[in-house]
Design a protein that fits this description.
Nucleoside Triphosphate Pyrophosphohydrolase; three-stranded antiparallel beta sheet; NUDIX_hydrolase_dom; globular; single chain; alpha+beta; hydrolase
């Protein structure tokens, strides 16, 4: 399902543990890390899609998490031109996502990355709040920043931790406190 602007509706899932660390998954067979995410099926709400994707990609069910918050609107990213498939319509130029912040209410033994025939992740780890900005593929970085900034108060009501951003291959380190 692609909207009239060429964006595929999608959900993004940020899972946090009791220490406010975030689930960071490695894509199968790649050295690429990301949060769980997935498309919204026709006649499915973003929340329904989020719970379906959570179970498919991480093996967790609704009762094993608490929704702390979600983004107010769609966050969009464009795919690089080399990833756009123009010969199968309609053309998808990127994704628009509703992001959810969840707290995990169960032990790590409940996580199951091969819950489906085609797993998304083959490994995972807990990371500091802003760390994904330095590791996610470049074309998703802006959306990750938007989601983490908007949802930070759900996990850090007294203010988010300092954010470290690396530029020019780590030559410059910028620390700032987000609103």
């Amino acid at each position: 399902m692609i909207d009239h602007d060429g964006f595929r509706p999608n959900v993004g899932i940020i899972l946090s543990n009791q220490d406010r660390r975030l689930f960071w998954g490695r894509r199968v067979g790649q050295n690429a890390w990301q949060f769980p995410q997935g498309g919204i099926n026709p006649n499915e709400t973003p929340e329904e899609a989020m719970f379906r994707e959570l179970e498919e990609e991480v093996g967790l069910q609704e009762q094993q998490v608490t929704i702390l918050g979600f983004t107010r609107g769609w966050l969009r990213y464009h795919l690089p031109k080399r990833y756009i498939r123009r010969h199968c319509g309609p053309t998808c130029i990127g994704q628009k996502q509703i992001w959810f912040m969840l707290r995990v209410n169960c032990g790590e033994e409940a996580f199951c990355l091969d819950h489906t025939d085609k797993p998304e992740f083959d490994a995972w780890r807990w990371v500091r709040y802003w760390q994904p900005l330095n590791e996610v593929v470049y074309f998703k970085r802006h959306v990750y920043l938007q989601a983490l900034e908007e949802l930070a108060p759900t996990l850090y009501p007294d203010g988010a931790p300092l954010r470290e951003s690396h530029y020019a291959g780590g030559a410059r380190l910028l620390r700032q406190r987000c609103p």
